[in-house]
Hints:
With 123 residues, this protein is mainly β. It has strands spanning 3-7, 10-13, 18-25, 33-39, 46-52, 58-60, 68-73, 78-83, 92-99, 112-113, 117-122.
Amino acid sequence: QVQLVESGGGLVQAGGSLRLSCVASGGISSSYRMGWFRQAPGKEREFVAALNWSGGFTLYGDFVKGRFTMSRDNAKNTVYLQMNSLKPEDTAKYYCAARQSSGSIRDLTYDNWGQGTQVTVSS
Length: 123
């Protein structure tokens, strides 16, 4: 069973940066695709970024606009989300997710989810 553990959230001022990490265990392989999603209070969970372990593509949500970068370290079974130029509207709980099943990587139909890490951006 794949397990995902996020870390790196916290409180930051507008314009600041944070790097989120997600460590995967329990059988992640190169066939998996990894995603970051976020959910603010009272709002639906939304797609932030995704990539595949074997490399080849990284996709971002429309709101990212060059501010976030998702990367991976295969040796550490870890994916990262570097977030720069943070805005108060980026405040949300950020979730890491993994999928081996078919389907759009922008959808919420991932097979495995972490518990999330809170990001709060003050103005």
